[in-house]
Structures are given as structure tokens and as C-alpha cells.
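Moderator note: this is an archived Q&A kept for reference. The question asked for a predicted structure of one protein chain; the sequence and the answer are reproduced below.
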Amino acid sequence: MRLIASWFRQGWAGCRNWLRWHRWTFWLILAIASLTLTLAIALLPSLATSTPRPKVILISADSMNPTQVDQYIRQGILSTDRGVGLLRRLGVSAKQNTTIIPSLTAPSHIAIGTGSIASRNDINANSFHLVASPFNANISGFGAPIGGYTLGNGNVAESAEPTAEPLWIALRNSGKRVVAATFPGADGVDVRVPGLTGSPVVQSSQRRTVDFTVPFGAFGGAGAQGFSLTAADFTAAPDALVEQLSAVGRRSFSPVLQRTTPETLTIGGVSYTIQAAVLDSSDDSQTNYDTISFYDVAQGIQPGPFTLPSTGPAFIKAGDRISKLFFFEGSPTKAGTSFYLTQLAPDLSTVRFTRYSANFIPSTPVVQADVDAINSSVGFWAPQPDFRIPERLSPGFTNFSDAELEAIYEDQVNSFTDYQTRLVLEAIRRNPEADLVLTYFEQPDGSGHQFTLTDPRQATDFTNPNSIGEGQDRDKVARYQRYVARAYQVTDRAIQRIIQEVGTDRRGRPLSNIILVSDHGMAPFHTAVNLNAFLQSQGFDATKVRAVTSGPAANVYINLQGREANGTVTPEEYVTLQEQLVKALSSLQDTN
């Protein structure tokens, strides 16, 4: 400090005088500093990689189209400095690839996991018929036996030599550690034949389980419900409730009111009564209800703190525009839901809210510990984007505007993708030295199905046949394009969070090998054909011929004797029916 003070007093002349007598000291200090900096730069990569992290992370972004990605990058909707844009800029891209047929989510993911097409791995649709099942029974492509099963002489069994196997089997056999965070095919289930009494296992859970296995979520037994209420639907809340609210710091400056008729529902065999109460949190000497609380009557308003998956009551303020989670305490499956508020008039003249469907993570003994770990660290399976809401297929949404329904769906896109992201990040943190992490994101597929509106033949109001061509709602077309773009952005942020979790080197490259894939793209949908109705109109007997459809893909089955479990069609009649089917389908024309 004295030396520095002396320099300031003496100015540049003093500095030159010091350097004249201490020049070798100066150069030595400079050399040491330079060497230290060089070593630090050289060691940075090795220092960075000394922290355990997965060697390979495979991310499947459902229906993410590389052409669409390039367009969004050009438009500035996606950045080359983060997420998919960063991977594309710093990594390598497959310029030529083959999309399997049919290009559906289940077959495509089993193709990704096995390196084989449907004719080899035996997963040919999202839903199809196993010939060992009764003729009218189907199986999900996500839970069907990969590589087939053994069927002969009336016996059904697991195949000793499946025609395809997931790559995780060979990896684990060679001592590698594999993590599957909701990746199709890795679900820990014993696969059985649907509809077959006393069906044996046709694929054991051992072949569908890895070192850390979290299955994709399942429906919890209660579908989404919309509620449109007015002041007449509320009555004074009991004093006990007001006291409970006060105990948790929720004061109302107008009388607390609650629904006259609460909702009752059953989750996993347990009955719940869900009540809604409205509060006025503004101390302005006016009646301004601005908060709604959802709680289980049996639990009341509990003060917490709450340990996941528990959430306690859900409080939502007018204008929040974000859903609030709600756990069904005591549900055997650890199921939960969310509530979303679209309208809350201060005088309660209009109150509209949504309870999302109940969901949970399915579990089996072999994956129970992993599922418990996610439930207690990330929470119960969050509600997924639900097309039944914007299409008004779920009950209670008749009075909701398009804007409200679209806002609900967008909330589900954001909240569910965030949940999926936190789930895979937790899986990575619990398995930092994994050799392979497999994970899956539902977006942008959900939004693509719901909001792809790019063809003049598509109706912008599916109840109005005149809303095609020049009759399309141009504002809706523009809104839908924005929703699809946002789905890509939401997925892009999820990918970036994974990159941040594993870290990057000084050039910005992820410290784990990250492979981004997609199962298929997306195309506009404008015409529907009920194939079974068509077949019956052509005189085909539904007990002998039926179709199983997955979107635009269809499998047509003939109930052949000696092959089907209850076959009725002789081999001779089979040939005739097959020829008739080809002729009928070839002649089918759309007259609309």
C-alpha cells in the first residue's frame, strides 16, 4: 500500500524510476501471472468435467419439426444461443433421416429405443389389437410387448427371442447405468394380453425397467370440469372456516362466502368434497371479491407447511392467469389436479373456473421407490394439456369464451412442460454418473394437434361447415400460429434448462452429449372418416371385420379362426372378405 501511495505521489516519473531498478522483478511477476492464466485456461475443461454428470442425454421433443425450427430461428422466435438453436449451431444435425410408418408417437419411440421399424418390433400404432386378445379388445402401443410374444396351440407366453429389444437392455447387461424419465417403453410393467382371462405375462417388467425408471403419468379417475357460477351460487361461510382462513393469514374485508353446492368426486376409491370460498382482500370499504380458495372439506384450510406431494388449499387471485396445484390427500395413487380461474367479478356476477383432470404417476413394485422419489421431490403428476377443454368436450365449458379456453390450454402447456423439466432434472441430479438418460417432452405435439391451422380446408369453427376457405376466422388462424410458436419456445426453454444443469465449457458446448430427436412432424387435419361406420355401411359384419384407428392410421382386422382367440371366419371366407375390403376401401371417396 505504501508503494502504491508513493506511485500516486510521484506520478509517472516515480513509476519509471521504480521499474528501472526493479525491472527483473516486474518481468518475473508478469511471467508468473501469464503462466498462471495459461494453466487456468488449459485446466478449465478438466476442472469442469470433474463434476459427475450423465455421459449421454437423449431428449425426445414430440413432433418437433426441424424445418419449423429453422423457420423460427430465422424469424427470431428461437435463438441460436440457447436450447435447440444452440445444439443445432454447436453440434451436428442429421440432414437425411427416415420417418417410420405409421409416424405415430408409440411406434416412433419404440423405433428410437430399438433401432427397428414396426414390422420388426411389433408396435404398429398408438392403439392396436393383439391377436391373442378377444376380437373386440385393444392394447396401447405404449404398453404393448416390444419385439412380440409367443402364440401357438392356444398358449400365450413371453418370447424367449423377441424380434427387437430396447437398447437399454444391452447397455445394462454391459454394466452401464440407464435412466428413463417418462420415456415410452420403460415403464416397469408386466405386459399382459387385454381381455384374456388369467392372461400370463407376455413381457416382464425386467425388460421394461432401468436403473431409475419413472413411467409417464396416468388418468386419475376424474376428468376436467368447467364451472360457471354467479352470486346466487354462494352463501355465507361458517365461522370455523373464517377462523381457519384468518389463522393462515387470509383476511377478508367482505363476508367470506362459499359455494352452496360443493363438488364431490372419487379418486382411487376415496371420496372427496371440494369446496370453493371467495374472499375480498382489498381494504377499500367496498365489496370487491378478488380471491378464491379451493379446499377439501374433510381437511379444511390447513396452515402447513406442506411436504410434497401435499399442497394444502389452492388460493387464486383474479388476474393471476396461472393454475394452482391441489393434491388429493389420502389418495392411494398420490393423485392431484389444478384449478384455473378465468373470471371473478368483484360482485360475483360472473365466476368461472376450471378443475383440471386428476392425474398420478402409475407405479409397480419394481419402480415404486423411483416414483416415490419424484412424488416427494417434484410432486404428483401435473395435469397435461387437455384438448377436451378447448373443444368443449369436457362438461361445463359451454359458457366459456374461446379466449378463456385457449388461456386454459396455454396454462397447461406451460405448467406441464415445467413439471416434465423438473422431473428430468431431478432424475439427473439423483443419477449424476448415468451413462444414458432418456427423457420425453409432450410439446410441441399437444399444441400442434390443437392449433395447427394452415389449410383452407380446415374449419375454424368445427360446428360451422362454412368456416373454411374464405369463411375462416383470420384472427383465430393468427392466434393459433402464435400458440404453436410458443409451444416451441416452451420446449426450447426446457432443453436449455437441461443444458444449464449439465453445464457448458468455455465455448458454450454442453458437458454431456445431448441428442435431440423427434418422433414425427405435424400436418393439418381437415377431414375425418369413421372407418368402422363406413365398413358397416358396406355390409361388413362387425363381429368379423373391424378397424382400430390411431389418428389417420388404421389397422383392419379379420376375425380368423385358428388365429384370433375367438375367431369365427374360416380361411376360405377370409380370402373373400379381404378382397371385399380392398375393393371397398379403394372406392371410398370424400363427397364433402
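Archived answer notes: The chain has 13 helices and 25 strands.
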